[in-house]
Design goal:
The protein has 227 residues and is an alpha/beta fold. It has two domains: 121 residues, Response regulator (Rossmann fold), CATH 3.40.50; 95 residues, Orthogonal Bundle (Arc Repressor Mutant, subunit A), CATH 1.10.10. The strands form three sheets. It has a five-stranded parallel β-sheet with strand order 2-1-3-4-5, with helices on both faces. Helix 2 packs parallel to helix 3 and helix 7 packs across helix 8. The protein binds calcium ion (CA). The site of calcium ion (CA) has 5 residues, from loops. One of its GO terms (molecular function) is phosphorelay response regulator activity. This is DNA-binding response regulator.
Length: 227
């Protein structure tokens, strides 16, 4: 479900799309003019704007430029005009995608979901980390070793992810307590040791025969590429 603002002057199209998008679960508001649409876009902060290019008071591309000056809201342009010559300036002006008339609410919905998915991905960049066969994805909290899922507690995940982002570097227990446990001062090194030993077991290694988690005596621990 998304909050969609539809800026379209043709009442037949506006009514049909509003109804169709609502049936698909979206919340839809609409405007028949460019300037009123701009006002609504800024006031209501919709998740996405569907913008007709041929509007009575202002060219849609002009409106798009005005909108882009103040907002990064995803915009899908609806146009009767087709072809590269027509669409390149529209995309240059900041449209995220376009649909060519006539189109159905179902087709528009597919574009809406694709554009929102893309926008969402950009907002939460891929911060997954891979070291040899070890892969950690903080967005899904999934950890795998050689393709096999690891059953980690949240703390174990955070600890392993922190070490993996610093692969090859020695990290002190003090630093781990502060970064992973959020302990500003105090805190016992023993806590770190215990979690490291649990992690080692899950990774199928020991302190004596480490593969990924290497203890640097008197300093801390480092995560390494076993190769
Ligand atoms: Ca129109």
């Amino acid at each position: 479900m998304a909050e969609i603002l539809l800026i379209e002057d043709d009442v037949t199209i506006r009514t049909a799309l509003t109804r169709g998008l609502r049936e698909l679960g979206h919340a839809v508001s609409s405007s028949p003019t460019a300037l009123d649409g701009l006002r609504l876009a800024l006031r209501d902060r919709p998740d996405l704007v569907v913008l007709d290019l041929g509007l009575p008071d202002l060219d849609g591309v002009e409106l798009l430029r005005m909108l882009r000056a103040v907002s990064q809201v995803p915009v899908i342009v609806a146009t009767a005009r087709d072809g590269d010559d027509e669409m390149v300036p529209v995309l240059d002006a900041g449209a995220d995608d376009y649909v060519v008339k006539p189109f159905s609410a179902v087709q528009l919905d597919a574009r809406v979901r694709a554009v929102l998915r893309r926008a969402g991905d950009e907002r939460s960049p891929d911060t997954s980390v891979t070291v040899a066969g070890l892969r950690l994805d903080p967005r899904t909290r999934e950890a795998t070793l050689d393709g096999t899922p690891l059953e980690l507690t949240p703390r174990e995940f955070d600890l392993l992810h922190f070490l993996a982002t610093r692969a090859g570097e020695v990290v002190t227990k003090r630093e781990l307590l502060s970064e992973v446990w959020q302990v500003a001062y105090g805190g016992a090194d023993k806590t770190v040791d215990v979690h490291l030993s649990w992690l080692r077991r899950k990774l199928g290694e020991t302190a004596q025969e480490p593969r990924y988690l290497v203890t640097v005596r008197g300093v801390g621990v480092k995560l390494v590429d076993p190769a």
